[in-house]
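Holo prediction. Input below; ligand is NAP.
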Amino acid sequence: MSKVAVVTGSNKGIGFGIVKALCQRFDGVVYLTSRDETRGKEAVAKLNELGLKPEYHQLDVGDRNSVEKFRDYIKAKYGGLDILINNAAVLDADFMSGTYEDVVNSININYKSIFSMKELIYPLVRNNGRIINISSDCGHLSNLKNEYWIKRLSKADLSEADVNEFVNWYVESKKNNTYNPEDFADGGTIPTYRVSKIALSAVTMVHQREFESKNISINSMHPGLVRTDMTSGSGFFSTDEAAETPVYLALDAPQSLKGAYVWFDKKVLDWYDYKADYYFKIKTLNW
Ligand SMILES: NC(=O)c1ccc[n+]([C@@H]2O[C@H](COP(=O)([O-])OP(=O)(O)OC[C@H]3O[C@@H](n4cnc5c(N)ncnc54)[C@H](OP(=O)(O)O)[C@@H]3O)[C@@H](O)[C@H]2O)c1
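Structure of the complex:
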């Protein structure tokens, strides 16, 4: 039976780099997926020009109906999958008008989408499979300065409900105009993105516990500051370079690496070290 790898939001940027690298190294079928079919098929054509042959399927992680269709397709065609890289994300809300609707939309794509993936796609991940959540340096706990939430997110028995309440606390603060930049590092810059990624890395550890019985490894990682549309081309790494650690986690890391937060240089960091200096600094963008 074919092994199957799936990368979300892979028509461009880091996701595209990951598909490219997996096509070169993975002994199985690689799915490039995108919310927009035209953009996705154009990306496949670019890889075909390099002699690489990813498969394609539409997948909008923010649209449950789309995730269901993808689930049905993979289940019927392969019975399951082996590698899932949750890469799709947006940075819109913090740079556009920053309206409440923008905040909700970004949180939905970057964080809440993980729940429809978990419900519909994770059960298809075969024993000893791997799930990699592309988080960010914005996802390390040191991005948070609010003592109550630092403590609550550090609980050994952390639950989805804890993480959801954290996210809702922030979203409500945007709705009620009570958002306090002092609750976050770096003067509270790009708070929606920070919250979505802190939540994604936190829930990674919860989901690891839930899928332990199938010996699935679920980790989150920071890909480095990468030259993509998200950073308007600012960054230290190309998308090919940025793909190295996600692909390492998918193919080379020990299966025993579980529920970890991994840096772009493959080092496992202590996610709970809230006093550390790992948090994102806006000045590194050099805009
Ligand atoms: N670049 C960096 O320096 C950096 C640093 C830390 C973390 N990251 C993380 O790395 C990942 C990739 O970012 P990137 O820099 O490659 O960004 P990017 O170039 O903007 O690419 C983002 C991708 O996600 C897709 N996407 C957005 N919403 C989606 C949805 N609802 N369903 C499916 N796909 C969707 C986009 O599709 P469209 O083309 O349709 O918009 C695009 O393909 C993200 O998780 C990001 O947060 C990036």
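The mean pLDDT is 96. That is the main takeaway for now.
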